[in-house]
Amino acid sequence: MNDKFWFIVISIVLLIVYAVDYKLDKANSIEEDLLKTIKSRGYLIVGVKTDTRPFGYLENGKNVGFDIDIAKYIAKDILHDQNKIKFVQVTPSNRLYFLNVEKVDMVIATMTMSPERSAIISFSKPYFVAGQAVLVRAGSPIKTLADLNDKNVGVLYGSTAEKNIRMLMPSVNVLGYKTYNDAYNALKAGRIAAITSDDTILRHYALTDGSVKLLPKRYTRELYAIGVRKEPESKSLLKIVNINVTNMVNDGTLTSLKRKWKLN
Ligand code: GLU
């Protein structure tokens, strides 16, 4: 009886010890660390834009742009080869989802860090500053947001501009688009009076098409940062991403990339 009692007690204690040990092991497990997973996989998976010149777009089927060069800098550091990247196309409306369902390791896609988004994902240090602006047809009488009263205004679904315009001008009729090209075509066809988004993104249209113009006023400060998952397994990745952002500032890479992509 006594023997049986002690056998049961010792078995229970051992079970608890094994369970705690297993949990601790799992928490520290190398498989769970995303940075180590990336290194053993041999390539980064990065969510980027494909319709946003000059940050992320396609040229002869290849991903190119300012954000793409940043991804390459990070791949060179982590994997010693700037081409060890699988690019996945993201839009403002799906990039947080793609990150959180683990379709991508990180997002480098003209993404503004905001308190709402910070509740869902983690952001690196910022690497670029843009500002919300308004693009209209060249002959348009619209000069500021106030002139958009009761007019149709195009935004990208899920963008900061979508939220901001509703706050700044509740009287406008906001129409959402999935891509910049869709919004641009709607503007050209007269279905909307303006597009509002980041100046650096809209500027491309004003520079390449004389029939549209960018209004001079900026309504926000958009700090672009790299997004990673909030989970503990992304912690070491975030750390190395931040080291890379700091290095890109200190070694002049960001300045020369801005020059390369005419972002000054
Ligand atoms: N930077 C803005 C945002 O994060 C909009 C630009 C975009 O990603 O298309 O919402």
Name a few traits of the molecule.
alpha/beta; D-Maltodextrin-Binding Protein, domain 2; 2 domains; 5-stranded mixed sheet; 10 helices; binds glutamic acid
Layout of helices and strands, plus pairs?
Layout: H1 2-28, H2 34-41, E1 44-48, E2 51-52, E3 56-59, E4 62-64, H3 66-79, E5 85-89, H4 95-100, E6 106-107, H5 115-118, E7 122-123, E8 128-130, E9 132-137, E10 152-156, H6 160-168, E11 173-177, H7 180-188, E12 194-198, H8 199-208, E13 212-214, E14 222-224, E15 227-228, H9 235-250, H10 253-260
Helix pairs in contact: 3-9
The structure holds glutamic acid.
Provide a compact summary of the structure.
The chain has helices at 2-28, 34-41, 66-79, 95-100, 115-118, 160-168, 180-188, 199-208, 235-250, 253-260, and strands spanning 44-48, 51-52, 56-59, 62-64, 85-89, 106-107, 122-123, 128-130, 132-137, 152-156, 173-177, 194-198, 212-214, 222-224, 227-228.
